[in-house]
Amino acid sequence: MARYILTGTPGAGKTTLLRLLEQRGHPVVEEAATDVIALEQALGRDEPWADASFIDLIVALQKQRQMGAGPGFFDRSPVCTWALSEFLGFEPSAVLRAEIERIEVERTYERSVFFVQNLGFVTPTAARRISYEDALRFEQVHLEAYRRFGYDLVLIPPGDLAARADQVLANTPFQ
């Protein structure tokens, strides 16, 4: 079952790229962290990422979405959550470790991961309060995490959205 991960720094255009892939008829699975942040903020927690339990909330939603999905494109994965945990200075939790082990044993995702490179800026949102400089550091943490877990990175450089989508599709059995 071909499940491909799209990852990269915040503001790199992953979600926009995912929207175009969806428009072209490919199944997509939304990023969990943004939805967790939105819900937690609606519940009155302005910076939910400041608490280590935030990581487990993301893992739970990622797993729920992955278990209900077939082949397609995934906006981030538990490896991204591992990178986020490291970036935030949290020790990876037992829940995160178990999920990483599960996806490795089950070979849940394709080994080729699409790493959407940054666009040269970050546009802040309610969920994205990261500076461009921190986003670049976070980008490196992501790269290192995927390499550590043995994934092959397919770099998607900045550029025209359609060209980025074409590059992704050229590296999959989807056309």
Automatic annotation (TrEMBL):
Protein name (record): AAA family ATPase
Gene3D superfamilies: P-loop containing nucleotide triphosphate hydrolases
NadR/Ttd14 AAA domain location: 3-164
Organism: Phenylobacterium glaciei
One Pfam family in the UniProt entry: AAA_28
UniProt cross-references to InterPro entries, sorted A to Z: NadR/Ttd14_AAA_dom, P-loop_NTPase
